[in-house]
Amino acid sequence: MDHADIAPIAELLEERRHLLDVAYWMLGSPSEAESVVDETYRRWYLLSDAARKGITAPRSWLAKTAGGICLNRLVLPEWADDGAFPGCPPDGPRATDPPPAPPEEVGSVVLDALDSLPPTARAAFVLNDVFGMSPDTVADIVGRTESECAELADRARRYLRIQRARPTTPKEHDILVRAVRQACMSRDTELLAALLSPDATASFDGGGKVRASSRPVRGGRQVADSLLTLLARRSRTTLSTHSVNGRTGLVARYDHQVAAVITFDIADHLVAQVWIVLNPDKLHSWNRT
User: Fold this and answer.
1) What is the per-residue pLDDT across 174-207, written as a single tens digit (0 to 9) for each?
2) 84 and 35 in contact (C-beta within 8 Å)?
3) Which pTM does this prediction carry?
4) Nearest-CA neighbor of 261 among 220, 192, 191, 207?
5) Of 21, 222, 242, 249, which has the fewest Cβ atoms less than 10 A away?
6) Is the dihedral of CA 137, 143, 148, 154 positive or negative?
């Protein structure tokens, strides 16, 4: 028997519950959380006795391993089409089973909104804000620098604040987006800035296929300037409203070809987040005749 693995029952159960919480909050599925935890312990026992004895904080090692497995699952969902990871037993709880008890400080609204976050931002937020892991541990799991992880977590917090804000009706959303279009068309910087939240953020998705800002632009005035620069009026350039994911958005065309699709998140009657898709690969469907 490996005495390094002997611990009080309460400690063992708390350890597994903690790992289930981490996996559940990152993946949102009880069955996948169980699969991740099973895979985590499988990797633990694949270590040699000497390697396990050399790990001074087993719970930390297990949490980092579980977080890494979850992130891989988020980035490459095809790894587990049946809800289980390679090497894991298929007889875990069904998706209808009750999920692990979530941390009390995070509500179900936040959990639902996490589904919309990019994998790395979701991981950075969950590991940092929900479970309070150290910055170096989060960076190790996510595969980014500590400063990059801090920025990812901050972007996630902003997005989640928007999601928890008072819902905007489709009519209110439409009116505000049309006002933004008018301000862009008339090149009215002051009007455009007045329609934006003071801490508004604009994110550009160029996909490495066009020259676009790789970092978000922050601040209402700065976002207004960036939009007016991007949408500078040129001959053969048009800007129109269009339904995007069920809400009014803006579509910029050049020579009748869609060059950008812009969507907006609104909170407290102001634009809080602007999402600009410039990646040609993501605009293929918009350019089909």
Assistant:
1) 999 999 999 999 999 999 999 999 888 898 888 8
2) yes
3) 0.52
4) 207
5) 242
6) negative
**Dist CA 284 CA 204 (whole Å):** 17
Residue 260: what pLDDT? Answer: 93
H or E element in which residue 273 lies: strand 270-277
CA gap 167, 253 in Å, rounded: 30
Map tokens 């980035």 to a residue. Answer: 75
Q: Which two tokens stand for residue 121?
A: 């931002």
Which has the closest alpha carbon to 159: 264, 25, 28, 23? 264
User: Which residues 6+ apart lie within 8 Å of 250 measured at CB?
Assistant: 177, 180, 181, 184, 239, 240, 241, 242, 261, 262
Element (H, E) at 140: helix 135-142
Give the per-residue pLDDT at 166: 64
CB contact at 8 A, 19 and 63: yes
Residue ranges in 47-86 assigned as alpha helix (H): 49-53, 58-75
User: What structural domains does the chain harbor?
Assistant: 3-164 (1.20.140.160), 170-287 (3.10.450.50)
Are 99 and 26 contacting, i.e. CB atoms less than 8 angstroms apart?
A: no
The DSSP code for 199 is E
The pLDDT tens digits of the residues spanning 238-275 come to: 999 999 988 999 999 988 899 999 999 888 889 988 99
Q: How many residues does the chain have?
A: 289
